[in-house]
Amino acid sequence: MVGRFHPRALDGLPGPRGADAYARRIPAVVLLPDFMNGYGLPDSVLVVGDRVLGEKSWFWKYLIYGPVAVATMVRHFVPLLIATRPGVVVPRIGNFFRALRLAPPEPLPRPSTSSASVVDDGAATAQKAARIGVAGFCWGGKYAVQLAQLGAGPFGDAPLIDCGYTAHPSFLSLPGDLESVARPLSVANGDDDMMMPRARMAQAKTVLGRKETCEIVEYPGAKHGFAVRGDPNDQSQADLGRRAEDQAVGWFRRWFGQGAEE
């Protein structure tokens, strides 16, 4: 089974264009389940944030737009944290992946039920394709990492995924979250991301560097959110986002057994 999961980023954007690009380039069936149950930061928060980042005047940036941005963020952020606390979303995510693994919806192929030790080419091909990947961005990054932990994480011993990818993950507990990773995991992050600044990034690189089936790629200058929504005031962020997409595509093609992209 070829599939990917893309937890919505904390900004509430489901990223359909990115999902379509992954589906085409891997190729894979890409699913976008709403584990946040409709919660997420609305466009108004993004617009205010962009205005603050793009403002050149000290007066307008820190005395006008800054306070407005903080008030807008608090208004939406507190309800979001309550609605998406681990006690609520972990069962939701776990149930989804268990159902996906056991009874995948069409057009995903059904898992092989053959118990034979030797299978024909057709069955071998189907079994080779029966792989689930998870991609998480920002808020979803922590859960993508935890899904790759197997028994050490909150999702139990069952192998719900075969490989994972995360870009600019938030709320990670370091080094523990990464030390517990047991499935192939790829991480994309800036060199000084607000959710994983330099010291934490160095720690993450050390931990994942010891794991043969994991990688972490550092993107100097990349701002938080660059892989799903780059700063519209900075074209370089879009370029970094494309590189992060290339990283994800290459990673899933590798662990889905499809080789390098043509």
Automatic annotation (TrEMBL):
Gene3D superfamilies, per the entry: alpha/beta hydrolase
Entry-linked Pfam families: DLH
Keyword Repeat: no
InterPro entries listed in its UniProt record: AB_hydrolase_fold, Dienelactn_hydro
Residue runs in coiled coils: none
Gene this chain is encoded by: TropI-6
Protein name per its UniProtKB record: Hydrolase tropI
Upper lineage: Eukaryota, Fungi, Dikarya, Ascomycota, Pezizomycotina
Organism the protein comes from: Colletotrichum shisoi
Domain Dienelactone hydrolase: start-end pairs: 127-253
A GO molecular-function annotation: hydrolase activity
Keyword Hydrolase attached: yes
Keyword annotations: Hydrolase
